[in-house]
Amino acid sequence: MKENKCIECTVQECANHCDGCNYCSLNKILVGTHEASPSMTACTDCKSFRKKQ
Predict the structure, then answer these.
(1) Which residues contact 28 (CB under 8 A, 6 or more apart)?
(2) Over 90: is that where the pLDDT of 2 sits?
């Protein structure tokens, strides 16, 4: 897995997280929301998240 230094990530439980550094291994990610009208950071989600096996 090669880190993408354009996408910082600290979610170590994600299968796309590069162990040993705080970067994602994907070329691009999808950021979305679970709210009808998001108004703060907590309302956003990384839709590219996959739980690490």
Answers:
(1) 7
(2) yes
How far is the C-alpha of 39 from the C-alpha of 8, rounded, in Å?
A: 22
Is the confidence at residue 35, as pLDDT, over 90? yes
Instruction: Tell me how crowded residue 44 is: count the other CB atoms within 10 A of its CB.
Output: 13
Tokens of 25: 């291994």
Confidence of residue 27 (pLDDT cuts 50, 70, 90): very high
* Residue (of 23, 26, 31) closest to 47 by Cα position: 31
Q: Give Cα 32 to chain centroid, integer Å.
A: 11
Instruction: Report how far residue 29's alpha carbon sits from residue 14's, in angstroms, rounded to the nearest whole number.
Output: 13
Cα 37 to chain centroid, rounded: 21
